[in-house]
Amino acid sequence: RGGVIVAPSILAADFANLAAAVAEAAAAGAPWVHVDLFDNSWEACPNFTVGPPVVASLRRHTCLQLDCHLAVRDPARYVDALASAGADGLTFHWEVLGGAAEVEALARRIRGAGMRAGVALAPDTPLPEELVALAQRGEVDMVLAMTVLPGFGGQSFREGVLAKVTALRAACPGLLIQVDGGMNAATGPKAVAAGANVLVAGSFLFGHKQGLAAGMRELLGAIG
Ligand code: DX5
Ligand code: ZN
Question: Is the ipTM of this complex over 0.85?
């Protein structure tokens, strides 16, 4: 488990009880909380979740890092509001931008606003060479290889995505590589073996019969 970060995804929590959800994550020893911001503007992510006001409210309830995953058409619209809300990281999708120059510019803007800059890849998006080059040049802090389609929790893990993680890890030894979707005590070890060092888990942790802390122990125990 050395150096692996587990980020409970509050998409699987009770949206009417988010203060309790982040308190449970903190009590379980999670260093980050993963917040999915979906605004139904991108056809690849047909869901609507929460926005910057909810991140601002979470900030008042937790010291945990707020790791925001934006599966939206125009992530640039949210940079300033999320920085003001106290987000620690902003991850946007490669697919919604118009190439490496735009990705680099947005990553710089996110960092300039004081947040970690992450770039997400949907499961069927091949690993772009230009993204590898940006990561090697240190222009992005994290790459998120989605292991389910963006939009909903509770889907099954797409193991084929791990080839991207392996390739990215070989090219970028120090990079934060996040996997998100279908993570549990069986799939987590496979993702870590491929080179992932940030595991997002929603339904496995918030739906765990013995509670989130037991789920964290089970996941961390499985990855060794
Ligand atoms: C899906 C979200 C995930 C989601 C994962 O689009 O990005 O963060 O919460 O849920 P599980 O862990 O249930 O697959
Ligand atoms: Zn997510």
Answer: yes
- Backbone φ/ψ region at 55: left (φ over 0), alpha (ψ -120 to 50), beta: alpha
pLDDT in tens, 151-183: 999 999 999 999 999 999 999 999 999 999 999
Pocket of ligand 1 (CB under 6 A): 9, 11-12, 34, 36, 69, 148, 150-155, 180-183, 200-204
Cα separation values, 160 from 115, 125, 170, 182, Å: 30, 12, 17, 13
Domain ranges of the chain: 5-222
pTM confidence score: 0.98
Per-residue pLDDT reduced to its tens digit, 64-102: 999 999 999 999 999 999 999 999 999 999 999 999 999
Kind plus residue range of the DSSP H or E element containing 8 = strand 5-8
* Residue located via tokens 């802390």: 213
Please list the active-site residues. 36, 180
State how far the alpha carbon of 12 is from the alpha carbons of 5, 84, 104, 190, in Å: 18, 25, 31, 22
Q: What is the CATH number of domain 5-222?
A: 3.20.20.70
Expressed in angstroms and rounded, the spacing between residue 34 Cα and the centre of ligand 1 is: 9
